[in-house]
Design brief:
Length: about 160
C-alpha cells in the first residue's frame, strides 16, 4: 500500500510541476478589443467618406460693413448677414447720378463667398449683380463689367 501511495504522490507532484512550468495560455480578449477598435475606425472612415459638401456648415465670411469702389464714388453697406444671405444698401451710378438701391442678396455657394440678387438673372432684366468676397475686397460683376470694392470706414452722416 505504501508503494501505491508513494506512486500516487509522485504522479501528483509531477503533474503539479509540469502544470506550473507551462506558459499561460493566450486569451482572446486582446485581439477582440483590437478588432473592435479597427472596426470602429473603419466605420468612422466610411462615415467621413459619405459626408458631402451639403452636410458641411460654412459660417459666412465677414461680409458685413461699408465698402467703397476703388475707382469711383460708388459704395454699399452690407448688414443683416444670415446663413442664407444679407441685406444691402447700394449707392451706384444710374444715368449719370448716384442713386440708392436696396437689395436682398442670397449666397450662391456653400462656402458663402459668392452671392447675388435673389432669383435668377431673368428676374432682373437678363442680368444681375454678383458679389465675390475676397477678404478685404469684394469683386462686383454685372453685365459685362466688374468693379472692385474695398472695406472702408463709413463717412460721418451729414446733418
Amino acid at each position: 500500500m505504501r508503494k501505491i501511495i508513494a506512486a500516487s504522490l509522485t504522479a501528483v507532484m509531477l503533474f503539479a510541476m509540469t502544470a506550473c512550468s507551462k506558459e499561460p495560455e493566450q486569451t482572446t480578449e486582446a485581439p477582440t478589443a483590437t478588432t473592435a477598435a479597427a472596426t470602429a475606425a473603419t466605420e468612422a472612415e466610411t462615415e467621413a467618406a459619405e459626408t458631402t459638401l451639403d452636410d458641411v456648415y460654412y459660417a459666412p465670411p465677414a461680409w458685413e460693413g461699408y465698402w467703397k469702389a476703388t475707382d469711383s464714388d460708388e459704395n454699399f453697406e452690407i448688414s443683416g448677414v444670415t446663413d442664407d444671405g444679407f441685406k444691402m444698401v447700394y449707392f451706384h451710378y444710374e444715368e449719370g447720378t448716384i442713386e440708392q438701391f436696396n437689395y436682398d442678396i442670397e449666397f450662391d455657394n456653400p462656402e458663402k463667398t459668392i452671392a447675388s440678387e435673389i432669383g435668377s438673372a431673368n428676374d432682373h432684366g437678363g442680368w444681375e449683380y454678383t458679389f465675390n468676397f475676397q477678404g478685404d475686397t469684394i469683386l462686383v460683376q454685372f453685365k459685362t463689367q466688374e468693379q472692385v470694392y474695398t472695406r472702408a470706414e463709413k463717412p460721418a452722416e451729414e446733418t
